[in-house]
Amino acid sequence: MKATVMTYGCQMNEYDTHLVESQLVSLGADLVDSIEEADFVLINTCAVRGKPVDKVRSVLGDLRKQKAQRGLVVGMMGCLAQLEEGQQIARKFEVDVLLGPGSLLDIGKALESNERFWGLQFKDELHDHIPPAPQGKLQAHLTIMRGCDHHCTYCIVPTTRGPQVSRTPDSILRELDGLLAAGVREVTLLGQNVNAYGIDQGARVAGIPSFAELLRLVGQSGIERIKFTTSHPMNFTEDVALAMAETPAVCEFVHLPVQSGSNAVLRRMAREYTRERYLEHIAAIRRHLPDVVLATDIIVGFPGETEADFQQTLDLYDEVGYDSAYMFIYSARPGTPSYRHFADLPREVKTERLQRLIARQKEWSQRRNAAKVGTVQQVLLRGDAFEPGFLEGHSRGNHPVVVPKALGADRAGIYPVHIGHATPHMLYGAVLGADGQPLPELPRLTPEAAALSAPLAML
Ligand code: SAH
Ligand code: SF4
Ligand code: F3S
């Protein structure tokens, strides 16, 4: 069988795609890159906003044609699959296999079945399942917990992914050993709320360390760089900042979603912290990590958000001076409390506020990135950039970085890079040699010559 998995959504979904792909390989499937080559197409779906759901609808529409024409088998996994909304879509588009985020290990059973297979349970066996390490990659994700015990009123994730279950440190460390042995040098620990690691259903699970303790443990494993996402301000504690500062492998990067700068909105979102408390966390993080790079998530146009509320979000943005932000227009999701209880704001109001927020974010990203010009950053270069002759990667602070290929730095690796230029979204630099001087750049092909030579390079 030739199979391909298409991934939408967050890093959790990317991790789950890797997990399912490795199951498919162990079942004897060949993984292929395109739908045209595949006999089985599996879509890993996201349901957090309306847009990714619309995307799945349009992809399934195309796939249904191919089902009719050439007997393609179509599967849907991930968050949308868990929802009634997703199951209706699956029926409409004649999906053969449906796997919710808790049933991924049923993929074998699903493919053996001669009829439509729907797996929607949250199965315990998944939590300590260790997928084989990805091959030939310098960075990897590692899910340390699944699900979410919060009930932010706008959010569908607790419904799609179920209650929080933390993995044992033992299985996390075993997975990490495998990653290390496969040559991985940077690991991102994943969870909807990593700061609540070990506190499932509101109570500490016996024998499981706190997140700060886990960071220290993972920091001793020999892995060079550790990142984590996402942090929730409600469960953020100062000992996490301290553990970060005292564990050299943990990168100085914190993604702490604020969602809104207005206490009235935060209350209606049920975020369980105030603007003041949030700013105390930022102060504590900066106290322990003066060079920290800060990112956030913001929702604009939550029901009832007034212009004054929105101004408070802009003010908070200035007060923190974030390096980057994911900014979203509120999307009313069926099944969430805010969908049931609050009226949506007009679309124009939401879009206009988003544009103002994006403008503010750009100013700050430009300012923060410009401050990196002249510094040396340790950059994990993943591989070829979009432009021929360049490599791309990211710093410990998660800035995207582009460098020209140089003698001794023409492939993936971690290199010291002198930053020469910054835009709001990118740092540009040159790889330094052992003498602290930039390595000589390799001759660069013009884009036209590179396009011509590409087919030759593939032979
Ligand atoms: N567990 C993570 C978030 C996961 S969802 C956390 O709490 O930080 C990622 C982001 O999507 C959220 O931080 C939020 O900003 C955004 N989001 C979630 N539901 C949304 C909705 N209904 N409309 C718009 N954005 C939403
Ligand atoms: Fe959603 Fe809130 Fe849980 Fe994050 S913490 S996944 S926003 S319910
Ligand atoms: Fe989307 Fe599920 Fe992630 S809803 S954002 S794929 S947790």
Automatic annotation (TrEMBL):
Reaction(s) catalysed by this chain's protein: N(6)-dimethylallyladenosine(37) in tRNA + (sulfur carrier)-SH + AH2 + 2 S-adenosyl-L-methionine = 2-methylsulfanyl-N(6)-dimethylallyladenosine(37) in tRNA + (sulfur carrier)-H + 5'-deoxyadenosine + L-methionine + A + S-adenosyl-L-homocysteine + 2 H(+)
Record bears the keyword Iron: yes
Gene Ontology CC, one term: cytosol
Binding-site list for [4Fe-4S] cluster 2: C148, C152, C155
Domain Radical SAM core: 134-367
Keyword Lipid metabolism among UniProt keywords: no
SMART domains for this protein: Elp3
Entry keywords, A to Z: 4Fe-4S, Cytoplasm, Iron, Iron-sulfur, Metal-binding, S-adenosyl-L-methionine, Transferase, tRNA processing
Subunit structure: Monomer.
Name of the protein: tRNA-2-methylthio-N(6)-dimethylallyladenosine synthase
Organism in which the protein naturally occurs: Deinococcus sonorensis KR-87
Organism classification: Bacteria, Thermotogati, Deinococcota, Deinococci, Deinococcales
